[in-house]
Write a structure and sequence with these properties.
The structure is a homodimer. Chain A contains 10 helices and 18 strands. Chain A is of the alpha/beta class. Chain A is globular and about 70 Å long.
């Protein structure tokens, strides 16, 4: 399965006819990671007919409603659908205290555990890892503690060269280690270098999510060279001052960050409700950084 | 403005492609009353382009998520839109304690007051009145304390007969009393009966909302003869047992209540997500009670 990013909501604080508040799902190696969960997230999932039985972790960037008001409904529906796997919610310090009382009341009998894992949104740290991915927090510049997320896929297994494996009579029990890069020692004690037995693994992907944030060059080294950057672009250039006072970014600022960080591809999102059509945001960004696309509710980007 | 009922969400616990969880707005004499506020209520309002600056009161039937998870997002957006009028939320005992902590956190700086008015969902009582309407609670039979609502429009002013007012030289200062039904006493002490000066007022309307509830004949006297009854019809007859165990109604049961209460018009809603098409529910209800319609998200019914 190719990695893909599913946009559930590309809007900002006020929903519009087309854009729900922020939520998205990153699919990677048969796992799903949700990033933010604005109101209506579960509705968008149903509208898309998404199966999300591989979702174990939700990452919340900050405690503004348009990024987390969908949590309670999502969890409640998981309960009705008889989910049994634990659900982990990674969010800034304070998230557990805010949501646990409602969870206890509305979701008392759900057949799975909801586990809050709080992190310090002010620090750049490894906040989660599993076999497939590492997730690092990216401190952003917003009105409340707010963190972006860098998803860095872990190195994949090398591909074995079947003919060489047969030639050197490598036992099946050793194959896994060889896929990880180990050399092979024959019964006669001869060392067969790994690069004779395997060819390089598939490329891994990296994805950085930065929303909500004012223009901040501090994040550049943290996201340098990623395959895909989602950066908020709440406003056009005419609203520069508003962007500054509300600690949001313009599309040009997002593009400037993408350009300075030399990312492969930029996606703009978190659009202010004032733009019925986001073409102006795309145009302004494109003038600075060519490989840029607009997020859109229910759109899927393949990495 | 004619009275009308705007369906924002006609679904039940699990949203579907077409149906959001429960919410609706009753418009009456230039005022708006919201009934229930499931997740996505504010989104539906935006999708419909509804102006809701005449909304002062929200009535919550019970504390299940599909009837109240939209409150926090709605209130939060009202704050961003600089609403200043106080907002009253009428709900079963316990609603304030459940929502106030999140309101304090997420809506700390909103420029209006949110006032919770709790009522006993187990009693049939007048829970609210203003110049236009009385609202009575209707105890329903559900898994948690749950109340329907009877909206009974207050008597309107009588229409003055301009020629008679002129003929008897009624001073302007007396007109309002005469519209309310008072007789007029001339300077000579002659009593002019009100029915010479006025003709009868326009008809008032009554609307009963009953969701969620199992079949309960106890509500019949409370809703007898209303112009419009919205009754939940979560299931078809094949799911009778499920309706019984979950304390919901089938479409036929809703129709039976409507028929026994001799209401003018029935609307079915709160459809289980299992019905892509609710025709079967309509058919089953129609066999028992002819004047029946299906609720539908973003549909408007004129009373």
């Amino acid at each position: 399965m190719p990695a893909r990013l599913i946009i559930l909501g590309a809007g900002s604080a006020l929903p519009t006819r087309n854009n729900f508040p922020t939520s998205q799902i990153l699919e990677l190696r048969d796992k799903q990671y949700m990033i933010d969960c604005g109101e209506g997230t579960q509705i968008r999932m149903r509208q898309m007919g998404l199966k999300i039985n591989r979702l174990g972790h939700i990452f919340i960037s900050h405690l503004h409603g348009d990024h987390c008001f969908g949590l309670i409904g999502l969890i409640s529906s998981f309960g009705m659908l008889n989910r049994t796997a634990d659900l982990y919610i990674h969010g800034p310090v304070g998230i557990a205290a805010l949501f646990e009382p409602q969870l206890q009341f509305f979701c008392e009998h759900i057949p799975f555990k909801v586990v809050f894992e709080e992190f310090d949104a002010g620090k750049n740290k490894l906040i989660f890892e599993d076999r497939s991915v590492e997730v690092h927090s990216i401190p952003l510049k917003h009105r409340v503690p707010c963190s972006g997320f860098l998803f860095r896929e872990k190195t994949k297994d090398r591909h074995i060269i079947r003919e060489m494996i047969d030639f050197y009579q490598v036992p099946i029990a050793r194959i896994n280690l060889i896929k990880k890069g180990a050399d092979f020692v024959t019964e006669e004690g001869k060392i067969i270098s790994n690069d004779i037995l395997t060819c390089p693994p598939d490329k891994t992907i990296s994805y950085a999510y930065c929303s909500d944030t004012a223009y901040s060059e501090k994040i550049i080294p943290l996201i340098a060279g990623v395959d895909l950057l989602y950066h908020e672009a709440t406003f056009a250039e005419t609203e520069q001052i508003r962007a500054k006072t509300t600690l949001h970014s313009t599309a040009s600022q997002a593009a400037t960050i993408a350009s300075k960080a030399k990312v492969e591809q930029l996606i703009l999102g978190h659009f202010s409700a004032r733009y019925n059509d986001q073409q102006i945001l795309l145009d302004e960004a494109k003038a600075i950084f060519e490989p840029v696309l607009l997020a859109e509710d229910m759109k899927i980007f393949y990495l």
